[in-house]
Write a structure and sequence with these properties.
The chain is of the alpha+beta class. Helices cover 13% and strands 21% of the residues.
């Protein structure tokens, strides 16, 4: 039987399709019949009446329209019907033929309009090659084998008009008034679902658990048509859609489907949700009825919300409808989280004029009897009248806490289940949707748990606010909850039983509530390392990358010869090892942890950035000092640059003349920020530490002169304050830096640069700007005065940006879908003598997508060193020329720090920083060398032991980045290079080091040689702001 006819079409409707000229596809495809309730129309699922909490329960909202999924709010809906499948080309072709025969549509330049010639319904293959439908004389027909694929290139009006036609065919009252396109939900004809109906149906009945995806919380390419899902349609001409219901868990054959890929067979997993709805994540975006307004959730009525009266204007001044469900084309997980909202303005790099080849729809119907809401369960929130916000947190039901946390129902709560539950709870406590918790919000949660009684909310807040900045971040909240998990795990078996979990829950008015919990002591029994995911990512996976080994893991014959230099992040030594993992040389005289990079100079000296924990307004910091040691470990140069107004951080670049380019931050007060056009409400810390560059001419043995500077602050643009001198149209000035470049509230360390590189041929500087998800290039040939202006220098642009890449939204020429970099590190030009020399290599951390990758790009550079600057649209290239990610993407994920470097043989050396693992891959992605750092805070591990984690969930063997120097490197000439022993202790020491799986919190910083030590946990300043990423 035909796939669609089996699962989605009434027999009568299928016959109509044939009669009006759209024949069924030549290759049948089986699919399971979705679960249906009695009375649902054929091809539809009956969605029962009910109540749920709508919104982002996982704090994973995208940055382009970050807070539009908050606040969480209670919604109650009557019963309705939802199509099990997305509307197909075959079905839409039938609609077009019927309307064309009735002279109710016209075709202009391949586009289909209503009879008025103004209301656009869709494209055909003549106007957009992605469409599978064309007009052949007087008949619309399907031009390929995509009859059962979802229809694409559809505008909202075209979807609504289709619904009216379906209603007319079946004698049902039409829901849409074609004069106004308003929808009457009281009629029983076909219509698009409301946004609330769509999200409620997508949950598949899992209202309490609120999964991230239709099937659960883990991303699974076998269950949905996302970008890079690997299905056999990801080749050939676009769109790369799959037949509706293709991801049904059954094996498929090319002989049956005729896909363009080479695979003879393809096996999917079942992507349907609990109601039997297919493709609720991926394949094509689906239109819903609602207009888009980012703040609608704050005033949404609790009973049957249908969206705002009209949409909030987008950047082009027009309102847009909402899309749901994600797509095949772009975005991590195809933007296919169940709570994700997309204003249809954002569709691709050419917003708002991007093609519509990933836009379709599915239809819904109101139930004939508009079923009354069932009696509300105790756990469900009470609907509120329009204008009132529903309660954020339901009244506590202590006996049900265990069932709500034990998501797989196996009778034991793992740390992952516990943390998952607490992540959702964080979103409920965060009543203002700011992404952080205030003392008042935590106190309110405490009062609710205790039935309104006076609480220890302040104590809980102070315990949780680890960095003492006056708010509790999600990372801090989860770290505290992990400590609670350990405290409650009284039998030390790594899971919580129901008595263990519920014994710790405060009852209303319980005066004997347990005392404040404390972090586990170092002398307690070893625990499994706590793992902490990023904003939108799975937990760090140490075992997958390290293979549970230390030191050398793999040493293949195809590995590039040489010596690898690295500095353990939580210790003060630096190692040079050979490919067998044996120590060739080490430096031990430094008294500071790295802050953050180390380099071997061509004279054989070690240049080391130092983490000084300096005093002043910083109260700690990322760097603050540079030191240079000769081969014999003698300090030959030192340079301090840390005060209450500035500080070195992260990285340096050595110039051919011996000078050093260094990253620094400078303090800007709230008043200065406001004068520069910043909205004071977005200043999280009340001030900013923007980046700048200094060039240091060393004065040996101590100090140096600053001979050149470049400041971010000199190149700002904003469109908020018309009185300011830097007011302008952001998209017209990609050479300037938007004060809102990261699209969210601004932390003190706003730009968060983390690497600097220099190109002597071009006299240009390359910067990795993590806070904006971009790389920037600036001119170094300028004077300091020219660098502060917009003209002068070799390229005539002064200190303005010559080039940028990674996130067109940062200069208003793209959206979230066009972003290519995700909190990246270690951007630099590939060195001469290496394949790809002159290209740019980047470690793409993937903090918002859950996996890391290495990107090699070819910038649009001409022979004069100028970059092609587009008059509109984003800087090129469109895609990397080479990249690497793990076959199972989540197996290679380092959320922060990290780096990569091209080797002379064409391989790439990668440092997965937070995992302390270095590995070398060939151009084809084969791993030929791997090493795991065995040095942790407190000492060295023995073979078979596992590093613990710090307060961020990063492993204590972390390394910022590494470099390998070939045997002929000038700095090694004449040096003794006899191999010593491996660093790790032998296996017979396993369990005797006292360090196996030992987790630690931040510790007191090292004593400064010229003054007293300082506490790295002290509140405020740059240390808090920039951390150690």
């Amino acid at each position: 039987m035909n796939l669609r006819r089996t699962v989605a079409c009434a027999v009568a409707f299928a016959g109509i399709l044939h009669l009006i000229g759209c024949t069924p596809p030549p290759r049948p495809a089986p699919a399971p019949t979705p679960a249906q309730s009695t009375g649902a129309p054929s091809g539809f699922v009956s969605i029962p009446a009910g109540t749920f909490e709508m919104g982002d329960h996982h704090n994973l909202g995208g940055r382009e329209h970050r807070n539009d999924e908050l606040p969480l709010h209670a919604v109650s809906l009557p019963a309705f019907y939802m199509a099990a499948m997305e509307t197909t080309n075959q079905e839409y072709c039938a609609f077009l033929n019927a309307k064309f025969d009735a002279k109710e549509i016209v075709v202009q330049n391949g586009q289909v309009f209503a009879a008025d010639g103004k209301t656009l319904f869709c494209d055909t293959a003549e106007s957009d090659s992605a469409s599978s439908i064309r007009l052949n004389g007087t008949r619309f027909e399907i031009v390929d084998h995509r009859a059962e694929h979802p229809v694409v290139c559809i505008r909202w009006n075209g979807a609504a008009a289709y619904c009216n036609w379906r209603s007319e065919l079946e004698g049902l009252a039409q829901c849409y008034d074609p004069a106004t396109w308003r929808c009457d939900y009281g009629r029983t004809g076909y219509r698009l679902p409301s946004e609330a109906e769509w999200e409620y149906a997508a949950l598949g009945g899992a209202n309490e658990q609120y999964p991230i995806f239709p099937w659960g919380d883990e991303p699974d390419n076998a269950r949905a048509n996302w970008p890079d899902s690997g299905d056999p349609y990801e080749t050939g001409p676009i769109p790369w859609t799959t037949p509706v219901g293709f991801y049904n868990g059954e094996p498929h054959a090319k002989a049956q489907f005729g896909w363009p890929g080479d695979q003879a067979e393809y096996k999917t997993a079942n992507g349907a949700n609990g109601y039997g709805l297919f493709d609720m994540s991926g394949n094509v975006w689906e239109w819903v009825n609602d207009w888009y307004a980012p703040d609608y959730y704050a005033q949404s009525p609790a009973l049957s919300p249908t969206g705002p009266e009209t949409g909030q204007p987008m950047p082009d001044g027009n309102p847009y409808r909402v899309l749901r469900g994600g797509n095949w084309y772009n975005g991590e997980w195809g933007h296919g989280r169940l709570s994700n909202r997309d204003p249809s303005y954002f569709r691709g790099p050419d917003d708002p004029n991007h093609r519509w080849y990933h836009i379709g729809f599915r239809v819904a119907r109101s139930a004939e009897d508009q079923a009354a809401l069932p009696p509300r369960k105790e756990s469900e929130p009470t609907p509120q009248p329009r204008g009132e916000r529903p309660p954020r947190e339901r009244a506590p039901r202590v006996p049900g806490k265990f069932q709500g946390t034990d998501s797989n129902g196996d009778g034991a709560v793992t740390v992952d289940e516990y943390v998952f539950h607490e992540r959702k709870k964080f979103g409920r406590i965060d009543t203002d949707g700011s992404g952080t918790l205030t003392e008042a919000e935590i106190d309110a949660d405490e009062r609710q748990q205790r039935g309104g009684a006076a609480t220890g909310g302040r104590n809980r807040f102070e315990r949780t606010d680890a960095n003492r900045d006056g708010t509790v971040s999600l990372d801090e909240y989860i770290a505290a909850e992990r400590a609670k998990f350990d405290e409650r795990d009284t039998d030390r078996n790594g899971v919580l039983s129901q008595p263990e979990l519920e014994a710790a829950q405060p009852r209303p008015n319980d005066r004997n509530a347990p005392p404040p919990l404390t972090p586990p002591r170092r002398d307690e029994a070893p625990r499994s390392p706590a793992r902490q995911g990023p904003r939108e990512a799975p937990a760090l996976n140490f075992s997958a990358l390290s293979e549970d080994k230390l030191g050398i893991v793999t040493n293949g014959t195809d590995a590039a010869p040489g010596y690898t230099l690295f500095a353990p992040k939580h210790r003060t030594m630096t190692y040079l090892i050979d490919n067998a993992g044996r120590v060739i040389h080490e430096w031990n005289a430094c008294q500071y942890e790295p802050g953050q990079t180390v380099y071997l100079r061509e004279n054989g000296n070690l240049l080391r950035c130092c983490f000084t924990h300096a005093r002043g307004f910083t109260r700690g910091g990322e760097g603050g000092r540079l030191e240079e040691y000769d081969w014999d470990d003698n300090l030959v140069w030192e340079f301090d640059y840390a005060s209450d107004q500035h500080m070195l951080h992260h990285d340096v670049a050595i110039l051919p003349n011996g000078n050093i380019l260094a990253l620094a931050v400078e303090r800007r007060t709230r008043e200065q920020c406001v004068a520069a056009g910043f909205d004071p409400d977005v200043l999280i810390d009340g001030e900013l530490y923007p980046d700048y560059i200094i060039e240091i001419a060393p004065t040996r043995p101590k100090g140096g002169a600053i001979v050149w500077e470049w400041h971010v602050w000199d190149h700002l643009i904003q469109d908020r304050d018309t009185r300011a001198s830097n007011f302008g149209v952001i998209a017209d000035h990609p050479e300037r830096i938007d004060v809102n470049c990261n699209g969210r509230r601004a932390p003190a360390f706003w730009n968060h640069m983390n690497s600097i590189a220099y190109n002597s041929k071009l006299d240009q500087i390359l910067l990795s700007v993590r806070g904006c998800n971009e790389i920037w290039i600036v001119d170094h040939s300028t004077t300091t005065q020219e660098a502060a202006s917009h003209s002068g220098g070799k390229y005539g642009k002064g200190g303005d940006l010559l080039y940028r890449w990674g996130n067109p939204a940062a200069y208003r020429r793209g959206g979230d879908a066009d972003r290519q970099l995700f909190d990246q590190h270690d951007a630099h030009w590939i060195a001469d003598g290496c394949p790809g020399a002159g290209n740019i290599l980047i470690f793409n951390n993937g903090l918002d997508r859950g996996y890391s990758s290495i990107e090699e790009i070819v910038p649009p550079l001409n022979s004069n060193g100028d970059y092609t600057t587009p008059t509109a649209g984003a800087f090129g290239p469109v895609a990397p020329v080479w990249n690497y990610s793990a076959p199972n993407k989540a197996d290679f994920y380092s959320s922060e720090i990290s780096g990569a470097d091209r080797l002379p043989n064409g391989n790439t050396l990668i440092c997965a920083g937070v995992l302390g693992t270095f590995f070398e891959v060939t151009p084809k992605g084969e791993t030929v060398w791997k090493y795991v750092n065995p040095v942790v805070r407190g000492g060295t591990l023995a073979q078979g032991e596992t590093p613990g984690v710090d307060d961020r969930g990063h492993f204590l063997n972390a390394v910022f980045k590494v470099r390998r120097y070939p045997p002929h490197y000038a700095g090694l000439a004449g040096r003794p290079l006899a191999p010593g022993s491996p660093i790790e202790l032998p296996a017979d020491m396993k369990g005797k080091t006292g360090l196996d799986r030992v987790n630690t919190m931040p510790v007191k910083g090292p004593d400064h040689p010229r003054g007293p030590s300082t506490d790295s946990t002290e509140s405020g300043g740059i240390l808090r702001a920039i951390g150690y990423l």
